[in-house]
Amino acid sequence: MSNTEESFDGHESSDGDEKKAYESILSNPSYFSATMKRMLLKHMVKSLPEAAQKRVKALKNLQLEFLKHECMFFEEVYQLERKYQEKYQVIADKRKAIVHGDYEPTNEESEFKSDVEEDDEDDAMIQERLKSMKSIQQYDANVKGIPDFWLTIFRNTELLSDMIQPHDENLLKHLIDIKIKYDEDLSYTLEFHFQPNDYFTDSVLTKKYFLRCKIDGEEPFEFEGPEIYKCTGCNINWKPGKNITVKTIKKKQKHKARGAVRTISKQVPTDSFFNFFNPPEVPEDESKLDEESQNILATDFEIGHFLRARIIPRAVLFYTGDLVDDDESDDDLEEEEDEMSEEEEEETPEPAQKTGARKIKGPMKGSSGGKQGENPAECQQQ
Q: Rounded distance, CA 53 to CA 41, Å?
């Protein structure tokens, strides 16, 4: 029997070559999936001499001690965030006054020198592309405050834009502020303040998130900091016929005995941003949650954290585009432009849906954000 055989690339290889290739793969775990890496490393530890295995166990006990201190650290960080939120709120209240048009900044307050100078060539290129896209809304010169401030932020934030339906937009135009209120018991409330409107009688809608900072006894090393485990919404007092979280459908119903047919109207849930205020309830035994509710809550927890840690404290930067919630980097934009240039030689392409954006850089504000569950590809509506 020959010691050589044909390899994947069509060349003959010896048993020795295959062995070297196999050993090369084993020596580089980056080739493996997370599950395979875990299995490989566990097998490696079990293969160590007994004395070395004991030392590894001692290190894991030290790691548990580290986690206990880390847990206390996160609890103190939460209280520090709670303390500083009072200072932040003074600034946030000034922001609200300007956005709502209750305060007109002085010339001195309005002076701002950008530390980023746009390249003329890039600016001209982007302006040309914008001409072929949907026109930007024009406002009256005497408009009050900053129109559609929060709606614009929501529209241009990937995580939130998926939640907004066309029938939500007129109501979101009345959103004038979002506040954060921290409680002592590792929970925080998001307050959505609205102007008087034709849809509901409430001036404030609330969403409360509950955190826990606890090391799991069965899987202690999965601890990554406080995690959101529950949230509660609020009842919305809709005006008659104005509930945009439901829609009316008509169904034909046939009488079994007489055979007569009648048309009945029925209200059924529909997608809406305002379903955000009616999340699924979390039972005491979280394992009893069905898969759909788990997915909804995972997305909900992610949104709650993102609003608290990113959107609310840096709202103006999302409004101006200095921060963009998008996975598309400047390098992606350059590649896209190259591809478009090649295509334009043959035919004029359709307008691109994205004009390129910077990734959000840096850690999320506040360590007490912890983990928020999975990151679903899209926002699921309740």
A: 13
Where does 184-235 show beta strands of DSSP type E? 187-194, 204-212, 227-232
Please answer whether residues 270 and 278 qualify as being in contact, where contact means their C-beta atoms are separated by less than 8 angstroms.
no
The identity of residue 294, as a single letter, is Q
Predicted confidence (pLDDT) per residue in 257-312, tens digit: 666 777 777 888 999 999 999 999 888 787 788 888 889 999 999 999 999 999 99
* pTM for this prediction: 0.72
CA 242 to chain centre: 29
Match 């999965």 to its residue by tokens.
Answer: 222
Residue 13 host element (H or E)? strand 12-14
Write out pLDDT tens, residues 107-126.
999 988 764 545 555 566 66
Question: From the CB of residue 272, how many other CB atoms can be counted at a distance below 10 Å?
Answer: 22
**194-199 contacts at long range (C-beta below 8 A, 24 or more positions apart):** 197/171, 198/239, 198/242, 199/171, 199/174, 199/238, 199/239, 199/242, 199/244
